[in-house]
Design brief:
The chain has one domain (7-151): 3-Layer(aba) Sandwich (Rossmann fold). It is 58% helix and 11% strand. It has helices at residues 13-36, 40-43, 65-78, 95-104, 116-151; strands at residues 7-9, 53-57, 86-90, 108-111. α3 (65-78) links the parallel β2 (53-57) and β3 (86-90).
Length: 152
């Protein structure tokens, strides 16, 4: 069901942040190498450094999910990437908890204990949106190719 899509969960916020940061740094290095070689057109072929969905427990040791989310958002800005959906997972289900999560940059909120349907209620729309964007992108590339073929 999630073919080609990657979700991440971690035991603590610092671990989640390091996973995200590592992927972004590797992507940036590959992108820089292609640009230095004059292969700018190949940059778009690089796989995205982002995770499809990040599930982040709000209360974690070392670094809580709110701080991890803030740091992930800073990295996305630093690397010029669109924000990945971040899901807050917490037993604290009061309205002010939802507000704190939203203010930190989290997109979705799941109260513990949660059911599979709660998780799928977050993943399904995200994946559908990504699939539609990919289809639209593929159609656009196909149109460009057809126009190039006509011009030759």
């Amino acid at each position: 069901m999630l073919n080609g899509y990657v979700c991440v969960t971690a035991e603590n916020g610092l671990e989640a942040l390091e996973l995200v940061k590592s992927r972004m740094e590797k992507w940036a290095e590959a992108k820089k190498a292609l640009e230095e070689e004059g292969k700018d057109e190949d940059v778009s072929a690089l796989p995205s450094p982002q995770f499809t969905v990040i599930f982040c427990d709000v209360i974690m040791p070392k670094m809580d999910g709110l701080q991890a989310t803030r740091e992930i958002r800073k990295l996305e800005i630093q690397y010029g990437l669109p924000p990945a959906p971040i899901v807050a997972m917490t037993a604290q289900a009061m309205n002010q908890d939802r507000v704190r999560c939203s203010q930190a940059g989290m997109d979705f909120f799941i109260s513990k204990p949660f059911a599979r349907s709660d998780v799928m209620g977050v993943i399904d729309p995200v994946v559908k949106k990504l699939r539609k964007a990919k289809q639209d992108q593929d159609k656009e590339k196909e149109k460009e190719k057809e126009e190039q073929d006509k011009g030759q």
